[in-house]
Write a structure and sequence with these properties.
Number of domains: 3
Largest sheet: 5 strands, mixed
Number of strands: 14
Order of helices and strands: HHHEEHEHEEEEHEEEEHEHEEH
Strand order of the largest sheet: 4-3-5-14-6
Structural class: alpha/beta
CATH architecture of the largest domain: 3-Layer(aba) Sandwich
Shape: elongated
CATH class of the largest domain: Alpha Beta
Strand content: 15-25%
Mean pLDDT: 88
Number of helices: 9
Low-confidence stretches: none
CATH topology of the largest domain: D-Maltodextrin-Binding Protein, domain 2
CATH superfamily of the largest domain: Periplasmic binding protein-like II
Helix content: 25-40%
Amino acid sequence: MDSSQRVRAILSFVQAADAGSFAAAARALGISSAAVSKNIAGLEKALGVRLMNRTTRTLSLTEEGSAFVQQARIALEALDLATEAVIAHRAAPTGSVRISTSVGFGREQLTPVLPGLLEKYPALSVDVDFDDRVIDLVQERYDIALRGGHIIDSSYISRPICHLNPVLVASPDYLAHHGIPRQPEDLAKHRLLARRFLGGSVAPWHFRADDASIRTLDCRAAVMTLSSPEAITQAAVSGAGIARIGVHHAWRHVRAGQLKVLLLDTHHPGSLEMTLQYPHRALVAPRVRVTVEYLLEAFATLEELHVPLEALRGYQA
């Protein structure tokens, strides 16, 4: 099988795997079902393995087929990106960039900077999903993901945006009525506002002990448990209790005097970070490359993302 036949065969195989039938693949490629079947059979013969199990009604990938289709998609995408890269030398980046972001960061930090991206690159468009779940960039066909937490997936390229430093806060009104905690043990007498993750776990609070160990406060008995950090922030501003929220959520309220910082010396912020992720690829599409660089530059100028913890000392209760 020569290289041109191999490319046609791989196209037929990927289309059939995605569409679930030879007929649908044939319509997408503009060829006959028989040609699709012949291409896939030739590919299987060249590889020496069966890639698909066929019946009169269904197609199913073999184990080898499942592994091959993932690599085949990357190879086909590389061909498309090579074409885009050549075109990019004589034209502005064009096309749609699909982005996945958490709800809070997407609304507060991403959305305000997108008009500047589209003004700089008028031929671009953006398609943004606001979703706090963990997504598979490749399988779900996203170009970019903006995610916070402990970033451990090395199958993606991760570009750091900022550290996510949480801080304990409460409103002046709440503190006037319930007192100011001076040590972590005092929190047992207070109304706590906790964060629940999508998986159902409640985020614990961590503190430095005198012996340099880290102590954990179990917040499952909090008076209010919310899955949205923005909602927790608003509840704290409204005087509902003491909350642990990211500085980027708290900063404008702290500066406005609506929230006071608590236990700054003993609270342990952890090592969370916000990152911009995109898949490892031989070539990065120009539309994705310019979007990545623009967003990183824009986020670098957002004050609330880069507030050092020391800057909060002047806002303690």
